[in-house]
Amino acid sequence: MSAFYRAVNWNRQKYIFDGLLAATVLGYLGLFISLSLGQDSNATLETALIRGLGSGALVLLTVILAVGPLARLDRRFVPLLYNRRHLGVAMFLLALGHASFAVIQFHALGDVNPVVSLLTGGADFHDPATFPFEWLGLAGLVILALMAATSHDFWLATLTAPVWKGLHMLVYPAYVVLVGHVALGSLQQPGPPLPTLLLIASAALVLGLQLFAGWRERGLDRQQASVAAEGWIAVCDASEIREGRARMALVSGERIAVFRYEGRISCVSNVCQHQNGPLGEGKIVDGCITCPWHGYQYLPDSGQSPPPFTEKIPTFNVRVIEGRVYVDPRPNLPGTRVEPALINPGGPRRSA
Amino acid sequence: MDQHEDPFYVGYQPVAPKHLARETRTAVLGVIVMALGTGAALAWSAPREDPGVFEFGHPRQLIGRLQETPYPSLLVPADSERQRVYTRYLLVQPGKFGAQAATLGLDGQWVTVTGQRIARPGAEMLEITAPGIVPATEPDSALPQLGQTALGRRTYHGEVVDSKCWLGVMRPATGNVHRGCAYRCLSGGIPPLLMTRNPEGRTEHLLLTDADGRQAHQRFKGLVGRPVTVSGPVFQEGDLLVMRVEQMGLGK
Description:
A: alpha+beta; 14% strand; B: CATH 2.40.50.140; 2 domains; five-stranded mixed barrel; five-stranded mixed beta barrel
């Protein structure tokens, strides 16, 4: 976390991440272009470049969309979320390069403006083989541009989290139109079926991972919200929560995170104010609930970010009776302090 | 509980727990290998392109007799008796423009044309570059009178393409991915060809005109990038087949 904005808060891990990303992207383009030109003496550099940039962007977009659910299913992918926006900006630059070279190659140096040519050049919606697939690519590129331009936390704070999150959820419509762009464009050309199979496999991977991660979380929600007593929700035994970690539950339709730390129990909303990250999958670090996605922190008893930060999340009243954790399902206003429940009221209590 | 038992890491921390870092490295390596493998498979499975030549940056000068109709051409006498009587070079301008404006009023005149050669087996084109077209002296051995041989009315299935890209400037030069470019080229006056395949699977091409033998690039631009059927009388002009299209429609 940082209390002020910089273009990029560089650290060693970011250098490694971006260096690896740049090397992979350049390696992809180099491999693609050299194979394209090496296997076919009639292939041209500009076409190989357009194809390499476009396919590279779609492969990277597939990775970006897969990382989210993968991180929910496998902790090895969680560290990739922290710099996922770097993947997004790199993907946009690849897509922009693809679009720019394609417009120059196919529409420049003609009798009308290249953009006019792109939008009007013999469009025909009646046949998949002649559908103006370029329009789909342009729509996807516009969405990717909006997302790349607003990827910085400055825009998250300026636009507010709900608006920013809504804007960046457009990545899914963008993915759909870009798959359509490829399906109605290059896949209409005669050739082996492998590219079609790879596109289907990538779409199935993205869809399958999203559905599987959602299905697993819905199963947990149903399991944990089933017990209630006197208006309070019995979540679990305190002993079931690991020290410094949380147990998530669904109360009144909202996910909560019940944290155990230093002999106490506190309960907050599971949704991080930053990018809706799952706080219940985070950990108490330096006395603060720490989001696993980007490390935003909140005090467990008040839901407030430690000064000078100003983020606040709702808290919930909580009590422990005979080792059982109960939560009042009515949320308190964001930032409201709630006295933590002691797991063992008569026992020794560790100091903070 | 130590980090090995309960690893947790966010990106602003200087160092990741070793156990988690090792696991993540493995996952990242797997993602990179899959991405590069996908790229290699896509490049390897790309369809093979047609042969073609575009001598970009290497202009040559040719002397010949200019012919304005149906599309601007330069007829260059053969320099050897073993060759055909002349070679026809379709003429185009740089970019997506035909050479109609550059050749206006020069029909039948001997000229020197500077340009970059575009060619594929059986067809030649010249993209005019500076200094362009200048008058030339008629050689002693003038071209014989060039005539047309009527081959009768025929029907062909194929695809309308712009001759400049198809002969060698661009690959691929057919299909939906190239449709926008072909549309723009025909709109700018590039001669339209019908690309068709003979029973042996080899590609052939015919120059397309309207039913009266006049230029018709604007008429054909809406048909590019898709299967078409065209019918009309076909004429042989040297080694060039020309169809005066009387009927045309989408599909086979």
